[in-house]
Design goal:
Helix content: 40-55%
Number of helices: 27
Largest sheet: 7 strands, mixed
Radius of gyration: 34 Å
């Protein structure tokens, strides 16, 4: 018989951002539990509001299927003593299975006899299995937890009620002092408690009590209400998906409405107005058909249309107070110059162990200039970059950013333009924060991109030097995100930018300019390279490239970000070539034999007079040839050059014994192979590539 089960956990209001992940977690954990318990079903439907997490399972079977299984025990010599009687091991083994030694049979397993018993497991009724879902609820995890009363149990918010109904039957379960029943609660103000007769009645019963339990239906209703308001007034309303999700998880019975604010506030930059409405009040902003911001907003109340005028007036009052503050800060900030703000940064700490924000800007000027020259910015761009790097953090000490931290960079651009700075400088100030998320927008200008990379690289280097390295999920200074931003920008711009030489040059020039941080950056250069290479790996994994090819590319001794990325794509493009396997095997053989030389870094001298066959001479000449312009090659050209050596390498090993007794000859041959191996290693760690 097909059955329906309802589980609802009633709570005090949850933060909006945890509602959807929490109900998804409940559904996923329930599905895993039912699979483990061998209970089949048709569907798990999710319901969620700020005050409840619920699942409705349809198509449930009556019981677990019976199971007949054969259990392997100890070897015969263990379960029987020297007299042929059952040992304690035999008694313990069978007792653990609910059987006796008389049930044992012996079977041969690879020449040894083992004890086996056949076991019949009666399937449990579904009621018994479902009662175990209380442990599933207890196992849920949340970003923050609460205790209440005298309980030690922690949850996202205090649990107020539990509904657990299998059709019309209450399934007993208990979490802390709350027992399951059939009573749920409607809207806090518009509804009342309701006793459910059957699990199938859930959604309709709550609708009657002014609760739309289906989050998707609630969200769709909000969207339609906003669209109706927009159509009525001939407005354009951007229904931001993240804001809609948040608003949806704040209400149980949504009613959308429009409000207004004084149009004199429109002189404030639109970014400030939108941030005030969207981020602080959770309002949707309004535009005309040409995209001009209008002095209106749309919001959603958790209730019906009764006394809606009072609600609108209250929201307008709150928004006006916030916009008054913004208007004040906007005018007040313009009373000081950019230089005034830059000087204030001398007293603002970037981090107590590292430096002030002012000193950070001095370091970033050094790094930005090095990067700008490396990637080929022209003289005008370098001038814009220098000016941007001199002032780009100034807005941190403005009143507006103090009130609206989300506007860092945005207000820097606005105030820079008002102060007469070049628009390219102003744009770079805003763009240096980009990207602000894993797949966020990248800087569109070269100057902004260089400044962003320089700022992020300084942060990673100095925090590493201060010993504040991300550990596990702990990354309080978002260094992983900043490193990933570096990788994305450099890859997008296709810049060749060797990290090791860049960082060493930056440290040297910071010392020369007397702008070093309080911490020593020299010891962490290799650690930062490894850290950034891990971000390269993550980016490449999202591009459907084989893991061994990624490991080979990132394992290169070259610290150039884009070259590593380009190498992975090159290997991926050529992996199905006819001679790919043979070429990689030849290169790998060179690398492995060269390791026996244990030479120090640097180009090794090879004496052609010690060659004993033509294959040595041919290989040496070809290695010399490709070495001449190796630094100028892109990854695909490097691959072509190295794999073109396959015939010469094969001839070499066919005709030449490397590890001969003559030490001078052996050393000369190992030197020749090491010079080639170092070129190969600069391309990729070819021994990571799976070619079998």
């Amino acid at each position: 018989m097909s059955r329906t089960f309802l589980l609802e956990i009633g709570l005090e209001e949850m933060p909006a951002h945890v509602v959807t992940p929490s109900v998804n977690q409940l559904a996923d954990k329930t599905a895993a539990y039912l699979k483990d318990q061998r209970i089949s079903y048709d569907q798990i439907k999710k319901f969620s509001t700020p005050r409840r997490l619920a699942i409705q399972i349809t198509g449930l079977v009556d019981k677990q299927p019976d199971v007949d299984e054969e259990v392997k025990g100890p070897a015969e010599k263990i379960v029987k003593d020297k007299n042929g009687d059952w040992s304690k091991a035999a008694i313990g083994f069978t007792k653990g299975q609910g059987l006796s030694p008389a049930d044992i049979v012996f079977k041969d397993v690879k020449g040894t006899k083992y004890a086996f018993v056949k076991k019949h497991i009666e399937g449990k009724p579904v009621q018994v299995v479902l009662s175990g879902l209380s442990n599933v609820v207890k196992s849920m995890t949340f970003p923050t937890l609460m205790k209440w009363g005298t309980n030690k149990f922690e949850f996202i918010r205090p649990i107020k009620w539990i509904v657990a109904l299998l059709d019309d039957e209450v399934i007993p379960m208990q979490i802390v002092d709350v027992h399951s029943g059939r009573t749920t609660w409607g809207h806090r103000f518009l509804g009342k408690d309701v006793e459910l007769k059957n699990a199938k009645d859930y959604e309709e019963a709550l609708t009657n009590q002014h609760v739309i339990a289906d989050a998707d239906k609630r969200k769709d209703l909000i969207r339609k209400q906003i669209e109706a308001i927009a159509k009525k007034h001939n407005w354009k309303i951007n229904i931001d998906s993240d804001l809609l999700e948040e608003v949806n998880n704040l209400v149980e019975w949504p009613t959308s409405f429009a409000g207004k604010f004084d149009d004199h506030f429109l002189k404030i930059p639109r970014e400030v107005l939108i941030t005030s409405m969207r981020n602080h009040q959770r309002f949707f902003y309004v535009e005309d058909q040409d995209g001009n911001l209008l002095p209106y907003f749309v919001s959603v109340r958790n209730g019906d249309e009764n006394h809606l005028d009072n609600v609108i007036a209250g929201n307008e009052k709150v928004l006006t107070a916030r916009l008054d503050d913004a208007d004040f800060f906007y005018n007040e900030d313009q009373q000081q110059t950019i230089d005034d703000y830059v000087n204030k940064l001398k007293t603002v700490s970037f981090h107590d162990k590292i430096s002030s924000e002012y000193d950070k800007m001095q370091r970033v000027q050094v790094i930005a200039k090095l990067i700008g020259e490396e990637v080929g910015l022209d003289e005008k761009q370098l001038k814009h970059l220098q000016r941007a790097a001199e002032i780009y953090k100034f807005d941190l000490v403005t009143g507006m950013v103090g009130e609206f931290a989300e506007l860092q960079g945005v207000m820097g651009e606005k105030y820079a333009l008002l102060a007469g700075e070049d628009p390219k400088v102003a744009t770079a100030i805003r763009e240096h924060y980009l990207p602000i998320s894993a797949d966020g927008q990248l800087p569109k200008t070269k100057v902004g991109a260089v400044l962003s990379v320089a700022d992020k690289l300084d942060s990673v280097m100095t925090f590493f030097a201060a010993g504040m390295v991300p550990n596990g999920s702990n990354d309080p200074y978002a260094l992983r995100r900043q490193a990933a931003g570096i990788v994305r920008i450099v890859t997008n711009e296709k810049w060749r930018m060797p990290l090791v030489s860049l960082m060493k040059n930056a440290i040297a020039q910071e010392k020369q300019a007397d702008v070093l941080p309080k911490v020593d950056q020299n010891p962490i250069v290799s650690d930062v390279v490894s850290f950034i290479k891990e971000r390269i790996k993550r980016q490449l994994k999202s591009q459907d490239i084989r893991y061994d090819l990624i490991d080979a590319a990132v394992g290169s001794t070259d610290s150039d970000i884009y070259f590593n990325v380009e190498t992975a794509m090159t290997l991926n493009d050529h992996k199905d070539d006819a001679h790919f396997k043979e070429a990689i095997e030849s290169l790998t053989r060179v690398v492995r034999i060269a390791q026996k030389g244990n030479f120090k870094d640097g180009l090794l001298e090879v004496d052609p007079n010690m060659f004993e066959n033509d294959s040595e001479r041919v290989l040496n000449e070809q290695v010399d040839r490709i070495s001449q312009n190796f630094d100028e090659l892109n990854a695909n050209q490097t691959f072509e050059e190295l794999t073109s050596l396959r015939p010469a390498i094969n001839d070499y090993f066919d005709q030449t014994m490397v590890m001969v007794d003559d030490e001078k000859v052996r050393t000369n041959r190992l030197a020749e192979l090491t010079n080639l191996a170092r070129l190969i290693d600069r391309f990729a760690a070819v021994d990571e590539i799976i070619v079998k």
